[in-house]
Structures are given as C-alpha cells and as structure tokens.
Amino acid sequence: MKRKLKEYKLSDGSVTDTDEVQKRTGLSRTGVYFRLNQTRDIDKVFLPSGDRKVNPYGKRYVWKSKPVTVIAGIPLNPEYLDGIAKGNEVYDRDGNVLNYKERSGLVRYREKMRQEWRDSSKVIKNKGIIWKKTYDDEEDV
To answer: Residue 137 has what pLDDT?
Structure first.
C-alpha cells in the first residue's frame, strides 16, 4: 500500500507532493522538504539540484544597498553605517546582525564601489596599480 504524501499548494495554485518534486529536481527527500519549507514559488521549487537561484546566499551573494532616507538634507540611515562592528557582532544600519555571507557580500560591494570611484576620478594617478602596504613601503630612518 502506498503511503499518503503531504500535498503542497504552489504559487500558481497547482498542488504537488514531495515525490513529484524529488523526481523533477533530483533532490533527496530531506532536500525536497527543506526547499518546500523555504519557498512555494513554482519557478524555484522545480529548479534542478544545486541551482543557486533557490538560495540567494553563497559565493555569488550580491549586497543590495537600501536607499538612504534624507530629511531636511540630513541622512538618517547613511550607507556607511552598514558593517559596524560592536564586540563580536557586525550590524547593518538598521541594527540587524549580519551573517558571514552578508558581510562578505558587503565587502565585495564596497571594493566594487571603491574601484568604480577610482576609475572615474581624474585626480588619482596610477589607477591600474593596486597599492598594498608591505614592509618595504616603510621609510628608512
């Protein structure tokens, strides 16, 4: 006798169960349960196993900066407040703790913004050279 599986209603109104998702994606039963608990979007539920579009975090996580609220010319939540460290925790501008992947995405975002600024600036010389401090840079006394 075949066991009765729990049915899940997806974003387009269709109904599926874990066996169908498992056959179409190649995920394990545990992976199917995790994916169905994570999202009910039909476009994401049936993505093949290993597709990073289901989970936005990972190596390709891109930091998305929120717009700054300005009142009477004063920024209330400026972008430079993202990544403030207090003790062992790192916070965004709203006071939420950032996990490792979000912190890594923020670092990559800031490096990209800095490089764009360097490339567009007319005062910076040797734009192609990336300066890194080494012991050879110290002045001889």
So the answer is: 45
> Please, which pLDDT band fits residue 141 given cuts at 50, 70 and 90?
very low
Residue 14 neighbours by CB under 8 Å, 6+ apart: 42
Report the domain count for the chain: 2
- Supply φ then ψ for residue 97, to 5 degrees: -70, 135
User: Contact at 8 Å (CB) between 35 and 45?
Assistant: yes
Q: With respect to residue 55, please indicate whether it lies within any of the assigned structural domains.
A: no
Judge whether 139 lies within some domain. Answer: no
* Distance in angstroms between the alpha carbons of the first and the last residue of the chain: 86
| Residue 140 within a domain | no
Q: Domain limits at 35? A: 7-45
pLDDT tens digits for range 10-69: 989 999 999 999 999 888 989 899 889 888 888 888 888 876 566 555 567 788 888 999
* Contact between residue 59 and residue 107 where contact means Cβ atoms under 8 Å apart: no
Segment 21-25 long-range contacts (CB within 8 Å, at least 24 positions apart): 21/45, 21/46, 25/49
Is the entire prediction scored with pTM above 0.90?
no
Distance of CA 113 to the CA centre of its chain: 16
